[in-house]
Amino acid sequence: MAATVGIAGVGTFGPMLKEFYQGPVAEQINNRVWMTEYFKKYTKGWTGKQLVMPIHIGRNSGVGYQGEAPGALPTAGQQQYRDLRVNAHSSYGRFQVSGLAMDTASSAGAGAFAGVMNEEMDRLVRDISNNENAINIFGGPTKGLLNERKANGQDTTDSQTVAGAGFSTPVVWQYQGDFSYFDGSRTGVAVNQADNSTWVRVELVDLNTYDLIPVTENATGAPAINPNIFVSAFSADRTNPTVSLTIGVNNGGAVPCSFTTENVGGQCAIALRLHGTQAVDSAGPPGVALGQNPARWGNADLTSAESLLGAQNVVANQSIGLFENLASQVHFGVDRNDTAATGANFDQRILKSTIVTHDVGDGDRGNAGADLSLERLQYMMDIMMQDAGVDPDVMVMNALMRHRYTVQLTGILGTTAGEGANSNITVDGSGGKLMDNQQNLAYGGVKFQYDRHFPVSTIALLHSKDWCLAELSSGQFADEDGNILFRVAGQDAYEGFWKHRYNIVCKRPNAQVILTGITPT
What we know:
By secondary structure, the protein is α+β, with helices and mostly antiparallel strands. 19% of the residues lie in helices and 26% in strands. Strands 1, 2, 6, 24, 25 and 26 form a six-stranded mixed sheet that branches. A six-stranded antiparallel barrel has the order 7-8-12-11-9-14. Strand 3 and strand 4 (50-58) form a beta hairpin. The two termini are 51 Å apart.
């Protein structure tokens, strides 16, 4: 464990580090993490690491008209509320400086110290903001969306085994989302079709009902035995991002099983979520572990028995991102899927979002109906007004979607225009040259926000006033004992870290819309 630095030179530099860098680092991170511009900070009401946030889900039913004749007044009712229970999650940024650099700074004074630290602080800002932006989008189990409404290939083979038998032929699905749990950047192991120990277990959610899409027996519709859906291959190609899904069950070859998204209604997409536990095969019981173990993510040795509760890439340790806020079955402790939100909890279904495909047929990005149209975009804005009574105030997209919009709206991208030519792309009602306003594009006065982590082929229409950045503590250097710099045990080096304890909460998911499955090129 790192010990507190006690030498006079570093003891002097610790306060300087806090005085001269904490404010600028916090400001730069806020500037780079775009959600801090739109989402209201919420800092009161924490009890320990949990915040209880009441939300309104239903109106008083005790209203109505009555004629002149005496009669009973409307039955008394009351407003309906639920409590969102929000836990704080911790984002960290850790930096280190060599002992030689510190000794040089100690002898040369504050100016030399500033020179040593500037590079570290610049990189710290980039690294923290990059990671927070990514997790603010994809934090939690929901990692992306499928847009195709089709049947997956059936499993007609023997029961699943680690030895490689008993799996369906992989089927390629169009996918918009995070690849970091499939390409190995957060897990340490990239998914490989030929090696089922690398496969990642997932589950699929029908975003019309918010219920899980089951794997069933083809003949009877009965639930399959020990069903597993795996991401077994992927392609992060920007022009056609995909994942391959493979099924494993314990039913045996005589009982073909499969799943389908053909029945997903309302033109809705399908959420792809990381499963919380590792799969097991048909051996046993209890079965032999199959695929990657999500409890081990973040450890260089995925076979280690070491406890990894603090591993940074374990999904449960992440703050809840935009997609999890809008697509999870349970919203901060409140059920919103059709199976659970019944009876007295029926009103909780209002917490569903509108997450639909651009193509209204089978959702395929290759269909003509998937080509971005202003009519479909306007319809999404109209749905938000109809369902929630508000208009979006920001549209979030990947920068690679910008050209799809400008071509659609103006037809002049890539052409030459006169010196005084104006486009009708505006932010505040004023016209401007297209190339002068690339960073300030808007539609109907709604500004576009670009995020390189946001999936291609997808646009989110947000009413940002319904989002909260719930902070238990704002971003700051760790200095509980009065020191920011610590000696690294067993090394000639010093280190420190930045911490930010927060979560992201959407109080009105029904006032948010995601349009996905847009032709990307």
